[in-house]
Amino acid sequence: LVPPAPVLPTPVRPDPLGVLGVPGEINLDHAASAPCARAAADAVAELLPWYASVHRGAGALSRRCTLAYERARQSVADFVGARPDDHVIFTRNTTDAVNLLARALPAGTTVVTFGGEHHANLLPWPRGSVRLPVPDSPAGAVRSLAAALGELARDARPGLPVLVAVTGASNVTGECWPVAELARVAHRHGARILVDAAQLAPHAPVDLTALDVDYLAFSGHKLYAPFGAGVLAGRADWLDAAPPYLAGGGATSHVGAATHEVRWATGPARHEAGTPNLLGAVALAAVCEALTAADRSALHAREQALLARLRSGLAALPDVVELRTFGPEAPRVGIVSFVVAGRDSAEVAAHLAARHRIGVRDGLFCAHPLTRRLLSEAATRSARTDLPATALRASLGLGTTAPEVDTLLTALATLP
Ligand code: PMP
């Protein structure tokens, strides 16, 4: 039952994005924030000497920065398969992107979510939103959404706008939600759909057109770019009709002398008041370009092999119980949450860091309703009465190696 022998982590990271890392430190916490890709670091280094105001100045530096910022927007638009009339708005992160859309909803919009969401896709929505129970299969999610939307259109709020807001891949279990099917159901009922792609975008192509979804939100810092830049991409009409997310310079086309005499800009500028995060946007776009150029099916296959190695290794440890929403075979990205029966998760995480230089996350992962439910389901499934109240999460990235996975498994097999 003991997993394969440990092999020391190699500093060589044979991934096409050249993800940076610290030799000897095993980072298995990519779902929180991924390390920086070489492409992002290079893009920032190249632009730093030119660093000047965006959209403001007539000087050569400023014009170059404006161009770089708008090129970054185009690269992101290409990365997300934006339709010609979609907007790509730079935000701080996914949370900011979802909050922006929440403020842009037409009056009377009902938002429908599942209880399996990250707090960023649960808490911004207005009162009266519908939270569907966590389904036990992807097909169950589709059925449950169809029933809820049917009811809303028929009886509860006929004629009013509806937005379905779902995760692309769970930050707790890594399980992929059936986004394209949910989009079909939403559209059949006249609703729109937002996909929280914070965890999906780093692992799989996210394409507004191919998935036929209306909005996508994701974070640069989970996509191998530095902190501080995220994206909301999607349909322009609600965004152009909404009050600006922030009121201020850059979001206006005319401001008069009288109080409140203001015409707001349309387009992304309407929601990007203030000096934008040029370096963040450029770094994020550089990663988008590098990922577009990479062989994503090869990256996917590599990650799936590592994930299978991790999950089968965990399954072989008698005290480890995996958390999951759907069946064990449901498609996943490289994220696994689990508990070690009889062990406090925070203590296990601290031990992994102190003894083995392995970084994992412990807690409820900003998805309290889901993680609590999955912990109680894991107790029932495993018939263990000694499961802890919080979980551990290991998440893989482009730089993760098989020896790193094995080191984690060995460390868990030999907990003192
Ligand atoms: N949604 C999901 C699925 C996430 O995993 C996260 C980050 N843990 C967020 C939203 C929020 O992302 P950020 O903290 O970058 O705003």
From TrEMBL:
Pfam families: Aminotran_5. SUPFAM superfamilies: PLP-dependent transferases (SSF53383). Residues 26-408 form the Aminotransferase class V domain. InterPro entries: Aminotrans_V_dom (IPR000192), Aminotrans_V_PyrdxlP_BS (IPR020578), PyrdxlP-dep_Trfase (IPR015424), PyrdxlP-dep_Trfase_major (IPR015421), PyrdxlP-dep_Trfase_small (IPR015422). GO terms for molecular function: transaminase activity. Keywords: Aminotransferase, Pyridoxal phosphate, Transferase. Its cofactor is pyridoxal 5'-phosphate. It comes from the Bacteria. It catalyses: (sulfur carrier)-H + L-cysteine = (sulfur carrier)-SH + L-alanine. Belongs to the class-V pyridoxal-phosphate-dependent aminotransferase family. Csd subfamily. This is Aminotransferase class V-fold PLP-dependent enzyme.
